Amino acid sequence: MSKKKYRIMTFDGGGIRGVLSANILKRLEKENKQLIKNTDLFAGTSTGAFIALGLAYGLSVKEILNLYSMTNCKYIFSPKYNEFFRPKYNNKHLKEVLMRVFPKKLKLKDLKKKVLIPSFQVITKDNGSWRPKFYTNFEAMGTDNEYVIDVALYSSSAPIYFPSYKKHIDGGVIANNPSLASICVAKDIDGANKKLEDMRLLSIGTGFTPENIKVDTRKWGAIEWGLGQNPPYPLLSILFDGNMEADNYYSSGLLMDNFLRVNPELSKSIALDSCKQIPYLVNVADTYDIKFANDWIKDSWL
Question: How many Cβ atoms are within 10 Å of 184's Cβ, its own excluded?
């Protein structure tokens, strides 16, 4: 095992589709016992933040999978409101579920492993302009004193679905795939300062659905782009899913063969809150051919 290698594992956003990511990770870890132990930096956005923070805290994949149980899903996504007039859900139940996993006073600096969690600050503390915000326990970035539960909620406050949380919204609006951000942090932040050739990055997605809008959009206004249903909330879908492939493209260009993307194609579009699709997502994860990933891990990661 090379001491020079700096291993990064990233997890996309995607709401309940995080169950697919966690089940793929379960399979990969079964074949590669040191996979999680050898990871130096975990990065995750939105639902991926729950996985990344859990792994950095020391939770097993089985414990993380419990977050995505049908019981928890139905509890988190209830009660449901009319999203024309307010967020579709309150974040109270989501916070309760997270507090069953993470101690209330647990801070980023208390985690066993390094993490990177994207969010977006709509109002900064000095009432300045909105801006991307990246939370990490690298001391040089000055966010290591943040509470883990707060950071998880910062990153997962998806517009329309959940209210903003302490002036933050979902990190998916700027980095739903946190791979490129994690490369930058590993390269430039004091405490990491790694060369590109030393990095190994395993990026685990939440499933990819080839989407398109089948109607003429030339006359679309705010209602069609914001609240249309084919696909659901088109502009939000583009922000969340469209930017993932850009991150994938640039991350692959930087790391080349030292970057691997694992992201099964889905046969249907799945909304962030679609609990009924959990069995389907688990089946996709369980039947997906991961031989290419196991080969890469053995050749490049370990």
Answer: 13
Other Cβ atoms less than 10 A from the Cβ of 189: the count is 18
DSSP 268: S
DSSP result, 60-75? -HHHHHHHT-HHHHHH
Residue written as token pair 């300045």: 128
d(CA 160, CA 271): 12
> What does each of the 302 residues of the chain score in pLDDT, given as a tens digit?
445 899 999 999 999 999 999 999 999 999 999 999 999 999 999 999 999 999 999 999 999 999 999 999 999 999 999 887 899 999 999 999 999 999 999 999 999 999 999 999 987 776 678 889 999 999 999 999 999 999 999 999 998 899 999 999 999 888 899 999 999 999 988 677 889 999 999 999 999 887 667 788 888 887 787 777 777 777 777 766 766 777 888 899 999 999 999 999 999 888 899 999 999 999 999 999 999 999 999 999 98
For residues 90 and 29, what is the distance between their CA atoms, to the nearest angstrom?
34
- pTM: predicted TM-score of the whole model, two decimal places: 0.92
Q: Using the 8-state DSSP alphabet, how is residue 90 labeled?
A: -
